[in-house]
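pasting for ref
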Amino acid sequence: MIAVKDVVLRLFAERGVDIEEIGRIVYELQRPYSNSISLEQCVESVLRVIEKREAQHAIITGIALDMLAEQNALPEPLNSIVRRDEPLYGVDEVLALAVTNIYGSVGLTSFGYLDKLKLGLIGRLNDKDKGRVNTFLDDLVAGVAAAAAARIAHQRVGDVVDNGAATGHSADAGEAGPQPELREAASG
């Protein structure tokens, strides 16, 4: 029996998604908050997100809908809406939020940031001139990156850069604590 994670990785590869590129996005999100973050840690975090069944199901569903739209196999008007990636069609973002929220609400701000700026791979997937429909995929990649960044944030609560110096605090992996902006507000 084929593992669902392997199906996700195969579909990502077939659709031009490189796990290391997602890791680079995570690195850019987390670099301002950690003195010691590495690309390898970010890639590992991406892989950990993809191990979650909830993420796997959302990714497979979204990619399947993109592929069906490419084949004009969805009923109208849905097929046209998905092919055009209409601005008011928010189902793609809602599906991606299922992935984003795996590690808590801290991923929401990162997802919104990535959805707006379309960094790196996300922007390339969003480019409609390539002939592929990636209405769901660009948002799912943003959701995976945001969840991976949230996972790291939960592990590194005390390794935050405050005015250029690490705080020196530590937290158990998975232990949630206040985010940097909340700590600053509470102390000021």
